[in-house]
Amino acid sequence: MRVEVRVEPSNDELRSLLAWLRQDPDIRRTATLEMREQPPRKGEMGAVADVLQLITENGWNAANFTLTLAAWKQTRPRASRVTVRHNDLIDALTDCSDEQIERITRLLREDRGDDQRGSAS
C-alpha cells in the first residue's frame, strides 16, 4: 500500500513531518517513509521536497497514522494544509476535527477490505 502526503507550504514542513513520523514506533515498525524531491529549477540552490511517501504492507494501523499526522499538524505554528492521497482518493486535514480524522482513516483503509469503521480516537 502506498500513501502520499503533501504539506503546503512544503519543503521545511515536509521534513518536519518526516522527522515526526519517524519518532513513532508503530510507524517505524510497519512502514517505509521516503521523501520525494523535485530537481532544483533554474536559479534555485537545491532540490525541493514535495511529497512524503509511506509504503506499508503488514501491521498497518491507519488510525494511528492519522492521529500521528493530526498531532504533528497541531504543533505547527503556521496553518498548513496537509493532503493525503491513497490510490485515486484524496482528502485534506485542515482543522484536525474528529470528522476529518475519521474520513482520512477510512480513505487509508479503502481497498484493504478493512471492516473496522469505528472511531479513530
What does this molecule look like?
The chain has 121 residues and is of the alpha+beta class. It contains 4 helices and 5 strands, in the order βααββαββα. The chain has one domain. The chain has a 5-stranded antiparallel beta sheet. Helix 3 crosses helix 4. The radius of gyration is 14 Å and the shape is globular.
Number of helices: 4
Q: pLDDT average, as an integer?
A: 81
Distance from N terminus to C terminus (CA atoms, Å) equals 23 Å
Element pattern in H and E:
EHHEEHEEH
Rounded to an integer in angstroms, the radius of gyration calculated over CA atoms is: 14 Å
Strand content: 25-35%
Low-pLDDT runs of 5+ residues are 114-121
Q: Helix share of residues?
A: 25-40%
Count structural domains.
1
Widest sheet, order of strands: 2-3-1-4-5
**Main sheet, how many strands, which sense, barrel?**
5 strands, antiparallel
Number of strands: 5
- Net shape: globular
Structural class: alpha+beta
Helix and strand arrangement:
Elements: E1 2-8, H1 11-22, H2 25-30, E2 31-38, E3 48-56, H3 62-75, E4 81-86, E5 89-93, H4 98-109
Antiparallel strand pairs: 1-3, 1-4, 2-3, 4-5
List keywords for this structure.
121 residues; alpha+beta; five-stranded antiparallel sheet; 4 helices; 5 strands
In short:
The chain is of the alpha+beta class and 121 residues long. The chain is 36% helix and 29% strand.
